[in-house]
Amino acid sequence: MQTDDHKVSVVILTKNSATTVRKSLGSVFKQTSKPDEVVVVDGSSKDDTLKIVRQYPVKLVSEPGLGFGHARNLGVEKSEGDIIFFLDSDCYADPQWIEKVLQHFTNPEIAGVTGQTCLWNTDCGVAYFLACVGGRMEMPTQREYVKIAPTMNLAIRRKVVLAVGGFDDTLHRGEDTELTYKVAQRYKILYEPEAVIWFKGSPTLRAATQKCFHHFIGVGQLFAKHGFNPSFVRFNLIIRGFALIIAIASLFFLPGYISAALFTWLLIELIYKTAKMYRRYRNRCVAYYLVFFTFWSLVSLVTFYGLYLGLKNKQKPS
After folding, report:
1. How confident is the model over 127-137, as pLDDT tens digits?
2. What pTM did the predictor assign?
3. Considering its fold, how many domains does the chain have in total?
4. 39 and 177 inside one domain
């Protein structure tokens, strides 16, 4: 036990994570400040994940696949620490992760601590592109308070998680965004740049698109629950999705000059964004903007399906 003041639990979610979970668990057990327990919540893995997990002194919890929110709540329920560290099974932690985070909990005003999330498989073009777009290739280097934080790198007081009602298990995704948003309304979440987690990222266009699809459904649900908050999403992608649909429809219903103007605007923005990103990162992964500006723009419109689901859920009797 690393301190007399706190008991630390690390909660890791897994599902078919055989290729990465060993690295994730290994990094936790090599911390300069050891956790008191590690809780692994497995969502019915079909590969060798469980075989690998059982090689470590962890508390293994089975979860039937009811979603990320349910799994994280189960991890909180089965853990015993007053400080809970969340980590994803495709991530690994720097050796001083817990040590760098834990020092801030001596301040009673701090409810949670997050840190840098850096890409480790930089050779993967799709993952590198998404990390650049998400701002994870150039993260802040100064401490600051934040409004939301990802559970791939988050430590939070147990009593605070319970005080805000835990994770919303009705959300398709974004359960970490919603939890930390609720926490930041009442408490302080600190960004500590020296608390570093390395993540894998989506390795293929298919995996990235699937994640994007569920992400935007979750965003719509968040809008239904908390209003149209720019903290939840970048609206420019949804706007481009609308513009693309209008441009396509204009080919059939509007004068040709309107179609030409719309497609010209979309093309100019594509060229501008691509050039700006290449100038910043000097990486050919910018070619994925061709997908980002077209197919993923359309995918982002499932936000409105999520909004429908969220409004429908609000109407249900409590």
Report:
1. 999 888 888 88
2. 0.91
3. 2
4. yes
